[in-house]
Amino acid sequence: MTGGPADRLQAALEALDARLPRPEQFPHRARGRWLTARAGTALGVCFVVCFVTGVWSHVLQHPPYGFVPPSRPWWGYALTQGVHVTTGMASIPLLVVKLWSVAPRFWRRPLLPSSLRPTRSALRHGIERVSVLVLVASAVFELVTGVLNVAQAYVFPFFFPAVHFAVAWLAVGSMVLHLAVQWPAIRGGWRLREARRLTDQARGGLTRRGVLGLGLVGSAAAVLTTVGDKIPVLSQISVFSQRSQRGPQGLPVNGLAVWAGIDGAGLAERWRLQLVGPAGQVVLDLAALQGMTQVTVRLPIACVEGWSVAADWTGVRLADLAGLVGGGTRAVVSSPDPGLYGRSEVGPAAFADPDTLIALQLNGEPLALDHGFPARLIAPHRPGALQTKWLDRIEVVR
Ligand SMILES: Nc1nc2c(c(=O)[nH]1)N[C@H]1C(S)=C(S)[C@@H](COP(=O)(O)O)O[C@H]1N2
Ligand SMILES: [Mo]
Q: Which of 36, 123, 129, 218 is most exposed, with the fewest beta carbons within 10 Å of its own?
């Protein structure tokens, strides 16, 4: 009899293995490749669309060096971000069904390394398990942080956009790996037509069609209950999206004046806009801006949270103002708001766009204080976060 530490460890592992559950202990007639392949494909399609629109949204909000964000089509950001948030919401019930359908497989053997000497197949098995773990963890992380952000519950101890973006690559990378490994099983699952033989325990309960239907109906419900924040006719049934009509002048507010330290008392008289450009500096008061050519455009505020609401904006073209200080190709606009969105850059396409305004009015009235009184930026195809409010300085760059 050998009683070395290696043997004792081996015996302990085997004992533990015998006590842990096995996949066969969780039978259900709906579980199996038929359901997994279909729920997984629907989830995969949602995830890919969500990823692509998310990357585009990220690049528009944080343009990498040398990239010029296009200013057309004017509805581009509202569409991409609307699709991003909607496909994310649609993914949640599909992910629940997909995980339910494969969950017992977590207990597949070998669960623990059966020997201390790793074999090639044990290694392959281990890598596959770790990649599934990364996929599930990153997918759940993306959906949870996304929902919290949309709900404006900023509970994260990290900068949401950077982390949500980084983890998305982890999710997509492990999804590609997962697809490659599971490709035969997915194809097999789609080809399965005839009913499988059922074990006695597995009878009863929902059929696989029933569970898949539940996932798809849940997905449609998730979309319908949230999409009203960008499609006004659906706002009545979209109980989870009451953001569409809140706020003064029929427009939701993101970033209150009090948070930004903006005091409205006597602001109209006190306020000055400092314009700096290649030809020098000009300081304008509100009357001077109102005396310039006024233009009205209809453009949405399209927030990263997925809501978008269009409005009529009236003000002075950025290019006209830039002309007062020698013109240029781009600008940095800023406000006294010390927060993250207190300033933004206007790239060459937006700078030259005739619809890019320093808006003084919203829907025919002077801007409400919370919408950026006395002056804010409004530009086409621009993330809401970059439609900077309470401007007091514009720096024109050649
Ligand atoms: N100075 C400043 N501008 C800002 C913000 C802010 O917090 N401070 N919030 C931004 C965000 S995230 C959005 S979605 C829009 C919302 O504009 P609204 O409040 O007029 O709807 O303003 C943007 N401009
Ligand atoms: Mo926003």
A: 123
